[in-house]
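> tool_call: predict_assembly(chains=two)
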Amino acid sequence: MKTYKIVSIDDEPAIRDAFQLALEDFSQIEVYTAQNGQEGIEVCNRVCPDLIFLDLKMPVMTGDKALEIIRQTHPTTPVYIVTAFAKEYFDTLTELRDRGIKFDVAAKPLSMQQIQEIVKSVLRLPIPLTY
Amino acid sequence: MKLSIRNFAQLWIIVQTSLMCLTFLFGWFYYQETEKFNQLQILNIDLEKNISNIILLSYEEMYTPSLRTQTQWNITYQSALKKINDAHALITETRYQMLIDLLASTQVNFNNIRALSNQDNKSVFLPSITSSIYLLGSNVHRIIHQEVVNHTIAKNWFIFWLMMFAICMTLIPFIAYSQIKNKALTAIITLSESTNNMIENKFLEPITSKGFREIESLGNSIEALRTNLLNEIALKSELKFEIEKRIEIEQALNNTLEKLKENQTQMLQMEKLSAIGVMVGGVAHELNNPLMGVQNYIDYSIKHTDNEKINNILNKANAEVQRMKRLVTNMLIFSRVNNNPEKTVVNLAEIADRVLNVLQGEFKKHNVQINCNIASDISVVANIDGLQQVLTNLLSNAIFAVKNVNTPQITIAATRENNNLAKIIIEDNGQGIPKTLQHKIFDPFFTTKPVGEGTGLGLSISQEILQKTGSDLKLVKSTEQGTQFCFTLNTKQESITSTGG
């Protein structure tokens, strides 16, 4: 059985917990976390994830900068930028789009169900998932 | 010729004094003349006597010479001589000399008579004496005669002078009176009248004055006063005009100040809302993370507990989290309103239908009858999202208001106003908003809904959306029969100005 690796990059422990707890019961899924953009790049390089959940506002390195660098080594990995819709981020996101960097957006807060829905649809997992 | 009062008085005094002096002078001369005349008269009379005595005595001496006669003759001669000498000052030198000579010659002849003893010889000298004496007498007569003439002339002149003097002294008071009357009295009266006229005619007519110099000078002073007064009056009316202008300016400034204050109040209000918006937006964003965390913790816990009681409690926790999410969403909407949305031309009826559709569930749930009176050809200039938000908010509030009414009714209507405005009205038949609360309904976070059911942001957001497009949300009326809100939008005819972003 294929194992899917999901990386959650967020400086808030509650958010990292949320992804971990939401996907804990899926034996096919392994969740890795990182605290900031820099760590996130390292984790992605180490793990080669199938799906990345990325926060924008982080210390050390922000999400958009991290995404740029991750895209250099993982050009096609699905990335969901999980953020609140603030005008500051609109500009950043627009800039990323203009530069051809692909990503999707999901608005916080995400419930457990919503997280599971996203994962299922992106990884095209068969329904039902095996617990 | 400007005569001053002083000069006039001086002239008068001088003239009168001169006349008096002259009169005295002439009087004095006349007196002297009369004295002279009298004295000569006396001389004449006295000499007559002497003359005749001399002749008699000469005859006597000739015919009966005696010592007595000689002595008498000498006495008489001396007396005559003395008299002539006494009158020396009164007669001319030549005449005096003549008289003396004549008298002396009589003495010579008398002495000759006395010296001679022959009577015939004596009689030779007698005619000489006689003729000398007669010549003396006639000379004295002539003197007297001349003197009479002189005296008469002097008398005539003096009388003439006296007449003139009398005339002058009679005329002078009249002249003086007339001068004073014209140049002083009349002049003063005229000046006084003229001044009164001047005052009545508002100082526009000049003062003229004629009379003594002092009075003319007074007139000139009053004239100068008048021109000064005219200047002052002109200045005063200039000042008044200036003051009126300033008052106008002050009023205009006050009006501007009022408007500025109003504007300032409005702007402060908008800034407050803006500031609150920004703060609220910041808080909302910050809340999203912990909300997500808590949500997922709860979800996980619900999934992993079999305990019914714990499950219940966790569900309640979840409900609270949902509530928080709704609040955050509303807060974000509130803060997002500060952006400048685009405006487009939209069909009002379409947008209203859309919103009514979305709320259909709620309408059915509370049995609310909806009346929609919007002409299908009204097109307005608005931001679609904003307009939808406003209508949604107003209709939601209306639903809440009619919840407990017997036949709940909500009306949404639109009418054209002027050429370029459409007025949208939303009315319900609920119980109305209490008068004491009506001024608060647009305040952010103010709500009459029970806890958990409303954020209190709906009306303040709606009003801000409308104010940003130049309109305004108004509570038209609210009684126990119902409530009505209205606002206006620009219709399509007006060209879209660049107020949108």
